[in-house]
Structure formats: structure tokens, C-alpha cells
Amino acid sequence: MDPVRNPYAPGAGQRPPELAGRDRETEAFDVILERLARGRPERSVVLTGLRGVGKTVLLGALRSAAVRRGWGTGKLEARPDQPLRRPLAAALHQAVRELSGRHPDEAAEVLGVVKAFALRAAEPQPVGAGARGRSAPRLRDRWQPGIDVPAAVGRADSGDVEIDLVELLTDVAGLAQSAGRGIAVCIDEMQDLMPEDVSALCAACHELSQQGLPLLVVGAGLPHLPAVLSASKSYSERLFRYVSIGALDRDQADRALRAPAQEEDADFAPEALEALHVATDGYPYFVQAYGKAVWDVATASPITAEDVAVAAPQAEAELAVGFFGSRYERATPAEREYMRAMADLGAENGDGAVATSDVASRLGRKPQSLSPARDALLKKGLVWSAERGRIAFTVPHFGRYLRQHAPD
């Protein structure tokens, strides 16, 4: 098959040619947008799931749905070492500019509030005293948010992120309401927000919901994200609409493979589709990776089970380097030891969650001595706590990879 015409697209957040199995989620989001357009109350949305199930892709699709309705949108990716102010200000800057055409004066005022909110993130840098050292050092901010209006005074600039975020999002949503539109703020890797930012975001969403303002937060994160939100604000369980994203079923996985191939006048034999579903378990990233490898080795249509067998080692090698290996390399030796013990235990239960006490027993250690390694893996997003006293990988097939590739 011609590799230039290969339709499959394995990549981080890269939209596949066929967004199979997500019709229910996109249709439900269209209903939310329409309800908000009619002044009906709605909750913000949180997508959760393992790595490789297409959360980022779906987040992008939902953002595109908001754009098609004329909404202002912005997107950011949370990082555990970065406060929310700067990336959120950049996202809202873009969203407000998209709405500024109808109400330029009001938009300029709101941008001033966005700038004031952002500037509270700037770290003051001391400016040296005079030659004789008589004058006291003064402070200046070297970072600027790139917004060409004066910063507002007395709005979203208190320094308390919860107060400031409520004021900021209320003003931004008010502009959207005046324009007859809405705002969608998309936050990827939402579980990595700092605790104080999680609390502030929940408080702001609560206020927006009570006022019926047309601003949605659309978050995406790992399966423990609902627990992160709930630990911050007890009412977060009722504040968001939680959507769990999982692997594709057999029909959906077949559609993800066949529809792009048929666009290129090709198809798969039934036996090939069966072999691919066994290899990928329907995880969207694996479907794309195997689809790309199989296309490149196949010589004619329909693609056969023999083609799958030939391409499988190539697909597995690429996943071992780019998908699994890059994550394994981020771990310290102690963390790798912990994960390898998880993998060995997972061989006995289909790589499901394992008890932390069993990990300790396998390593011949006391559970308390392994807490630093476990906590570091949680912070790195390599594992998640399915329930108290149990731990699981955030990456599908990671246990199998470790058993095959990681040294004992």
C-alpha cells in the first residue's frame, strides 16, 4: 500500500481521520451549548480516562463545536509546577478577542481585567540601588501578558486566586452574554492543577452556575480527577458533568480502521480486524498505531491477518519507544522497581488495580517505606489510585510492556 496515502494518525492529541465511538459525547455537548444559548442552566464538563483513549482529541472536538456556534474559546494544558494565572489569562485573551467585534469597548474593559489577573502572577525582580547604595531597591515585573490595554484596578487583582478567578470569569462571561454567545475554556491534564487553583476554579464554576452565565469549563484528565475535585470542594460532585472515556468496542474500533481505509479505496479482511482488535483492545491510540504499521506493510487490499502479523512487531517497537518507553524513562530506579512489582502482580489479574500491600510484600519492604515512590508516580501521572489501598497504571498495556522490556 502507498505509505504516502496512509490515512492513520497516531500522535499526542492528533485527531484521527475517523473520530469513532464519540458520537454520544459530542451530541450531548451540542445539547449543553444549545441550552446555554437559550439561557438554561448547565454544568461544566469533565472528561476522564486512561492515557491513549482520546481525551485530548475529544476535548479538541468539543472546542470545535463551540467555535462553530460562534463562541469564544481558549485552551490550556495544566502543569503541576505552574500556577493557573498565566496560562488561563492567555486562553481567555484569545477567547475575548474572538468576541470583541460586537462590543469592542466592553471587550477592552474585560481584557483589562484579564491583564490585571495575569500580572498578579509576575514575580517582582529587584532593581539594584544607586551607585552609593543610598536608595532602597524597588521592584519591577519583567513579564507582561501581551494585552494592549491598561490593567484594570480593583478587579481580579487582589492576589487571592479564588476571589480573583470568580471576578475574572464573571466579567468574561458577562461579555459573552452581551454578545449573545458563550465562552468555553478547555483545560487538558486538569488533574495537574495546583490545589489552590482547583479550589478557585470550583468556586468560580459554582458562582457562574448560580448566575446562569454562559461560560463552560471543559476539562480532561486521568481517572482520579473527580477525586481531586471532590477533595477541594465537596459540592464539585454536583458541579460538573463527568464523562468517562474508555476503549472502543469492536464495532467502533472496526469503524475507526475501515472508514479511513475506504476513503483510500482499501479495506480490511474480517480476520485482520479480529487480529487488530485482539492486539489493541480497542484503545484509540493503539488502533491508530497498528493501523499505520499494517497499512505500510500490506501489499494489496483487502489487508489480511498475515499483514497484521508482519506489522505487529513494528507497531509494538514504536509503542515501546514513543508511548511506553518515554514514560518509563521519567521514573527513578526506585519508582521503576515499584512499577515492575505492579506489573508482575498485574499478570495475575489482567493488569487491573493491585493492592499497595501486595506491592510491598513482593518487594520485601514495609508499605510505609514505599510511600515516596508511590507518591512520586502519582504526581508524574504514571499510576492512579483506583480506591484506597489500591493502585493501577494510567497507561493501558503498561504492565505488559514492563514484563517484556523492563529489566528485573
Automatic annotation (TrEMBL):
A single GO molecular function term of this UniProt record: ATP binding
Chain segments carrying region Disordered: 1-24
Domain Orc1-like AAA ATPase: 18-218
Top-rank taxon, per record: Bacteria
Family matches, as InterPro entries: AAA_16 (IPR041664), P-loop_NTPase (IPR027417), WH-like_DNA-bd_sf (IPR036388)
Coiled-coil intervals, chain numbering: none
Keywords: ATP-binding, Nucleotide-binding
Pfam families, per the entry: AAA_16 (PF13191)
PANTHER family in the cross-refs: ATPASE DOMAIN-CONTAINING PROTEIN, DNA-BINDING PROTEIN-RELATED
Protein name: ATP-binding protein
Organism of origin: Pseudokineococcus basanitobsidens
